[in-house]
Fold this sequence. Notes:
heterodimer, A: 202 residues, mainly alpha, 6 helices, 0% strand, B: 281 residues, alpha/beta, six-stranded parallel sheet, 10 helices, 6 strands
Amino acid sequence: MNLETLGYFVGVPFTLFIYSYALYKDNPTFKFAEYTGIAAALANASVIALEFTRDNWVKPIASGTMSPAYIIVLGIGLLYLARYTSAEYRWLVRYPVAILIGTRIGLLMRGSIEATLVNRTVGLIRNIFILDNFIIVIFALPVLLYFVMSGKEGSIQTRYSQKLGKWAMMISFGAILGTRVATFVSWCTARVLYVLEAFSLA
Amino acid sequence: MTDLDPLASRYKLSRRTISWVMIIAMVILYLIPIGLPLTIEEYTIDMYNYIETLGPEDKPFIISLDYSIGGKGEVYPAVLAVTKHLLQRQVPLVFLGFAMPEVTPMMTQLFKDVQIEDVWGYEYGVTYVGIGYIPGTTTAGALLATDFKGVVQSDTYGNSLNNLEISKDFSGWQDFSGVFAPTTVTGGGWVTYWNVPYGFPVTQALLGSGAMAAVEQVDLGYIVGFLAGIRGGAEYEKLTGFLGKGAQTLDVLSGIHLLGVGLIIVGNIEWILERRKNNES
Lengths: 202, 281
């Protein structure tokens, strides 16, 4: 028996267990498949993390090739374990979390502000007479007004602008939901194909 | 039907019935394809044309496998078609990923599925290298652009990148010709950290739900082209001639979407009738 066939022996029952929730109702086979999936993903992530720690920290320390800068980083990383110490030292965990989040936000800001705000706005203004961009402006302004400014009941802004803002949001949410459903259907078709392939039907 | 949906019993068409109808329809459509026509989007053509410009003399091209096992079904037809196209063009390839821990098994599966050495004559360490998973998510992705070997020193098999011909000179973004990033996460780091600061060419394969944002990114010049979901994969298969699961699944998807539209109409009619009945009573 090759690995692919063995995979079918595991994959097909698990696919059916998972879909039993939608096709029948919540049941022990669904729960078994759900928990096994979560456990397998966690086990995989743990092994990868341990391997990374071994290759990048333990081996260099053992061989004496570790850069001093890395030892400082290792010390900051170890502060994560403060979470499991007594309440007196538990606050130390905030340092690695703050450094990590701060670094990520800093890196993200560099590209994101330019990509998602500046360039998009400039591009939009430069090509305002393209239909797509015109629609974006027509819909974006009322949505901004809906959240940022409030108006007196009965005023023009309340009557027309907020209504248009609501419509814009509803259309947008509908489109997002529609594409999400399409994605889930797509995943489902892939699993159906997998089961059919297992029985040599497709 | 379930505790999660207490109102479902009010309607004749329950969620369970819809699920059964859709699954049965999928099976029928797989067994008896209806052969719906497929038009190719301009974004797919853009991507194809870009890859056609690459060749063996170019710098290594990155394939960043940032998709989960759950989303693999939707992006894998595109991954296979684009990888085969790159192999056909004999472009030097670097396989890596930093968004999902599953990268390494996905990568070895891809090597096997495209038969990278047997069919295309690639040589490990010379014309391709499998770096695999790089922990650190987008932070690692951002640092790769400026200090590649500061983030990763060895490939997935433990070989030092300094000892492999293809990777010995890797230092940052300037040592690569472009990236193909199939991803199931939103916002992937390639545009933010590689394209915006350095103008690095990015191509992507996304879930169908990511298509709307990607269209805007193409228009703004952040990505060269993209493939959205199975449809994008099927379009690329048609362009390259490497027919696979994309083309096979597309017929089913189109049929199911038609069925979905029908069910939405039925659901709305049911709701209108229900409301009219309540008004009358």
